[in-house]
Amino acid sequence: IGPNPTSEDFNSGKNAIGTGPFKFVSYRSGDRIELTRNDDYWGPKPAWSKVTYRIISNDAARSAALLSGDVDFIDAVPTSDIARLRGDARLAISEIVSSRLIFLAMDQGREGPTPFVTGPNGEVLEKNPLRDHRVREALSLAVNRSAIADRVMENTALPSGQFLPEGSYSYVPGLKAPPYDPARAKQLLAEAGFPNGLRITLHGSNDRYVNDAKVIQAIGQMWSRIGVQTTVEALPWSAYVGRAGKQEFSVFQFGWGTATGEASNALRAQLATVAPEKGMGTANRGRYSHPALDALIDRALLTVDDDAREKLLQQATTLGMQDVGIIPLHEQKNIWAMRRGLAYAPRVDEETRAADIRPAS
Known about the structure:
Radius of gyration: 23 Å
Order of helices and strands: HEEEHEHEEHHEHEHEHEHHHEEE
Number of helices: 11
Distance between the termini: 42 Å
Strand content: 15-25%
Largest sheet: 8 strands, mixed
Number of strands: 13
């Protein structure tokens, strides 16, 4: 790659480098990427001599392209189309519970007023109520995760109480999704000094996670039932993520895919006290901080023995979730659909790789 490369240098293939199973042919922005098989590839050769990745961002258009035969394989199958695609004898489905947790983060850095939480009549609060464990737990218990998974996500998600799906290294057995308990939530708010509830604006994206805007809208309705008058504001990801990084919100939706498959990745990014020089708290937009949790993460990262490290990570996960450092919601399912005759081994990391698509035999 020469000095001062431009976007066009990459888009044209001038700066394409790599040793993968396919070679770059062409790229048309917003439309498609064309590849050809690399017969000099060091690993198993892919089944296809040519591959075209189509970029179809509209959910309905993506499903329609598969049903019409215009494409052979799609990822990010829209939840509204799952039942129809499952029932089509011409098609096959591949799915797996992902390593991506959808959750709510909360401003726990400000000791004084937080911008989008007030008293029930709109009065400014001297202290940030989100720093009170009872308030955080009340908001968590007021979320009916099963209803979200079944109705909003149309059975393409599993309620969760931790970062990783069952079966993962450092998954905590018995640490289930918090129960739906609005009566207890109201009691906790009253104990925290808010018998008449609060007003909250819940922020989230509308184009990043599966049904993200619908999820926060449902949560807003659930919170209103315990006396937390909730306004929901869903923004395009391009505008949303920057504002969240500047700590502009009070309660806000995010997702985290644990690419390493073990809990230290999520713990150090989301719940560790922000310390850029140590690589800690890199995605901790709520500025949660708990010294005992930090100590467990540090010990785990310095522990070589797998069993001992797993126990430390499980302890850290349990502490962070019991303290409601975040409000876990659900794990998404990764779902692919394809014409019958093809097969794809589902991946928890959400990747779609043409080299892994094979004839069904």
